Amino acid sequence: MKKRILALLLASVMVFALAACSGGSGSATPAPTPTPAPAEEGVTLDNIKVGFVHISDPSDKGYTYNHDLGTQHMQAALGLRDDQVISKYNVPESAECDTAIRELVEAGCSIVFCTSFGFEDYMLAVAEEYPEVEFCHATGYQAAAAGLPNVHNYFGDIFEARYLSGIAAGLRTETNQLGYVTAMPFAECISGYTAFYLGAKSVNPDVTMKVIYTNNWNDPTAEAAAAQALIDAGCDVLCQHADSTATQTTCEANGVWGVGYNSDMIEAAPNAVLTSAVWDWGIYLQYAVNCVLSGEEIAVDWSGGIADGVCNVSALNPNTVAEGTEEAINAAREKIISGELYVFTGPLHGVGTDWDGKTVEINLAEGEKYIEPASAPSWNYVVDGITVIG
Length: 390
Description:
Layout (H helix, E strand, L loop, with lengths): L1 H12 L36 E4 L9 H16 L6 E4 L6 H12 L4 E4 L5 H10 L4 E5 L4 H4 L4 E4 L3 H15 L4 E6 L4 H17 L4 E6 L6 H13 L4 E5 L4 H9 L2 E6 L10 E7 L2 H13 L6 E2 L8 E3 L11 H14 L9 E6 L5 E6 L16 E3 L2 E3 L2
Parallel strand pairs: 1-2, 1-3, 3-4, 4-5, 5-11, 6-7, 6-8, 7-16, 8-9, 9-10
Antiparallel strand pairs: 10-12, 13-14, 13-15
Helix pairs in contact: 2-10, 3-4, 6-7, 6-11, 8-9
């Protein structure tokens, strides 16, 4: 199953070509004020039900915790009652996902959000059977090709926040060796750690980075073991693309620094965390639910970045960041928002793997851009200076 999903993802990556601009049809839009006009007869602000399928639960203090915060923000903004929001937690990427989605439909949900990569195939199967229900999938890529008008993908330009958090790491490191604990050898993860490294390198040209995959989105034991291995290899600042806080607590226990993900992780490791790359999922959730209420179409592919408030870095930890970090991050953020800075801009060289396992290279010339498409990260190249060690 894992090989099949990876092959599909890598195949989709090859569809995207280098481009000079990304197009705006799937970009973030402000959530409109809900109107009383229903999308379909019987669906109103008073009786709409909204469903969620999550791979873990808010106790992870990372991905699901932060997505759940977005749900709370959406619920409060729209004034939904607790009985109008139904969340399924700790659902594995297996047939149990199919069951969870069907239970939400049977419970009367007019819109269902599936928040983990491996949920997409199950969601597509159910969506085809229930065209009257809207289905939105985070981190996926198949909506555009599915041909189902009730299926949508959403994500964000988290690589922008990754780049900013990398600046904090590049200024903090003393060994010039960064470490990165990441879940899967997918473009979503590779795009993220590449952006983090490029941010670090922008302020410290001498840095290198080592990467270890855990092959699981949420496995605190594996995350802690990978973090320890990176620390033992000489890395003194560790970032993560994994759902728990285990990387950060391992940094704390070893007296090194860390950069969190999904939520502000300073509380978990107050003497280690510099900052975290964070999301505000509530922006999309409110937008999509409002579309159902107003009868508007939900974008097939939706994405938003720092300028839209969809992602950013959390507050800097004054006890751990190096001098000048705030100024450097603020300057880079302004350039990202203005368009002066785009993360994946040449000169840049990387090596990746195509859909049939063949090695492929990318060479971006000076000023040439690789534009990440809306909702589906596609950068799949390990750039010079990064080494995958496990």
